[in-house]
Design a protein that fits this description.
By secondary structure, the chain is mainly α. The chain is built from 7 helices and 2 strands, in the order E-E-H-H-H-H-H-H-H. It has helices spanning 20-35, 50-66, 84-93, 96-99, 107-126, 129-133, 137-146; strands at residues 2-6, 14-18.
Length: 159
């Protein structure tokens, strides 16, 4: 809480005095606000169904279990890494479940589809030196070492 005191001159200005505890509270509020992560579209109430959220979350969690080295806690991770929340949101936003309605009736089927897409991207890059050169050698080395390629590009989201 800030207190105000007249400065004593005739221009009616006010001097604000803050206590150390006020500064600490302000610092905590500032840090809390800056740590906040934006709400993803998939998690917004009324945007996705509970069933879609469940399928996508379970499939991405299973994918993370298979490729833990390729998942980053940072929402601004570097290629070829992916972030769980960003991946969930991308899958939802691309409408994969809607486009493949009937084919994907469980998270296991979505996971299998993701693994097929992953293998296809890996093969595409493996067989094309020009594509490999379009990414850094370090990125290609990590992706090929772990066999995880979904983080190299996003074209697979729209197949």
């Amino acid at each position: 809480v800030y207190t105000s005191k007249p400065t004593g001159d005739n221009n009616n200005s006010v001097k604000l005095n803050a206590t150390k505890s006020d500064d600490k509270i302000a610092e905590q509020v500032f840090l809390e606000i800056n740590k906040a992560e934006p709400l993803k579209l998939i998690d917004m109430p009324g945007v996705s169904t509970a069933a879609d959220r469940k399928f996508i979350t379970e499939a991405v969690t299973a994918l993370q279990s298979q490729f833990p080295e390729m998942f980053s806690p940072s929402q601004r991770c570097r290629t070829p890494n992916v972030n769980v929340d960003n991946l969930r949101n991308s899958i939802f936003g691309a409408g994969i479940l809607k486009r493949h309605k009937g084919e994907m009736t469980s998270s296991k089927e979505l996971l299998n589809w993701l693994l097929v897409q992953n293998a296809a991207i890996g093969q595409k890059y493996e067989n094309n030196q020009k594509l490999q050169k379009s990414i850094s050698p370090k990125t290609w080395k990590k992706a090929s070492k772990h066999g995880f390629y979904l983080g190299l590009e996003s074209s697979w989201l729209f197949l």
